[in-house]
Write a structure and sequence with these properties.
six-stranded parallel beta sheet, Rossmann fold, 10 helices, binds guanine, 2 domains, alpha/beta, single chain, 11 strands
Length: about 290
């Protein structure tokens, strides 16, 4: 078997057409959807991600601003900046790029962003909302993975899904989302003994562990759908995922590549959340509506 390669770029392009149309509708009512991003310190990966987000915003008609701060920015000063943005009616979405320097509490920073502008979906309200289906902004990467599965017409009900990786921003929220769609979800992580006994059961295998070639063909069930969320920079700068793509594509039925799989969808869902925030702030959408209801 040779897997169909899921084209995340093409899916993202299609979803962005709809987002651009909504942004244009808002603009025709004198509302310019706007996202402000804050970057603290010098991080090579952050610089690349933020550059991609700025470009994507421009392509769909979202105004973006980047506030770049030096690594010695104090926590209090950063929180004050966020509070000002919370009050600014011209800003619909606020994103603080992670990681932050160690002297700044991520929890305090994320908790300070107004819930109504938390387009990353990292505020405790949004995180907790995933448990009961009241999330206003689903976190972008798991939301993107879910959108890919939806776009591919994959019914999740009763499917065995194994999620490898239990980060707060990918593995855990994704597991909750898939459970809401009535999948049977197993979550594996760095301490899981005999990872293969879980991965081999998966109809759908999602890998977000941050380890190149963690998943090799013998660990994958024939015909499985494999979604690779990994972003790893090899020595020399080449970008690669967590899955041995060449080996696994001969066993899976569908697989996402890296780059060109989940990455473009993560940015797309940030655009989706930002336009939704602008629609809510201006009465074009109910303020408390969940984007990911049970
Ligand atoms: N750093 C890595 N991924 C993300 C993300 O999705 N959002 C933010 N804010 N920072 C990140």
């Amino acid at each position: 078997m040779t897997a169909k390669i899921i084209d995340g770029v093409a899916i993202a392009r299609q979803v962005r057409v709809g987002i651009a149309a909504r942004a244009a509708m808002l603009k025709s009512h004198d509302v310019l959807p706007a996202l402000t991003m804050i970057v603290v310190g010098d991080n090579r990966a952050s610089a690349i991600y933020v550059r991609n987000k700025v470009r994507a915003c421009g392509e769909v008609g979202i105004k973006s601003d980047v506030i770049r701060l030096t690594a010695d920015e104090t926590e209090e000063s950063l929180l004050s900046r966020i509070r000002l943005l919370n009050e600014d009616p011209g800003v619909h979405g606020i994103l603080v790029q992670l990681p932050l320097p160690p002297h700044i509490s991520v929890r305090r920073v994320l908790g300070t962003i107004a819930m109504s502008k938390d387009v990353d979906g990292f505020h405790l309200y949004n995180v907790g909302g995933l448990v009961i289906g009241e999330t206003v902004f689903p976190p972008c990467t798991p939301y993107g993975v879910h959108k890919i599965l939806e776009h591919e017409g994959i019914d999740l009900e009763g499917k065995n899904v194994t999620v490898v990786g239990m980060s707060n921003i990918v593995g855990k929220p994704l597991a909750l989302m898939l459970m809401q769609r009535e999948a049977t979800v197993a979550i594996c992580h760095a301490k899981t003994r005999d990872l293969a006994q879980y991965t081999i059961l998966a109809d759908i295998l999602v890998v977000a562990a941050g380890q190149p070639k963690l998943i090799v063909a013998p660990m994958v069930r024939t015909g499985a759908i494999v979604i690779d969320v990994g972003i790893n920079f090899l020595p020399g700068g080449k970008l690669t995922g967590d899955v041995d793509f060449e080996g696994v594509r001969r066993k899976a039925s569908r697989i996402t590549p890296v780059p060109g799989g989940v990455g473009p969808m993560t940015v797309t869902m940030l655009l989706e959340n930002t336009v939704a925030a602008a629609e809510r702030a201006t009465g074009f959408r109910p303020a408390a509506e969940s984007l990911f209801p049970v």
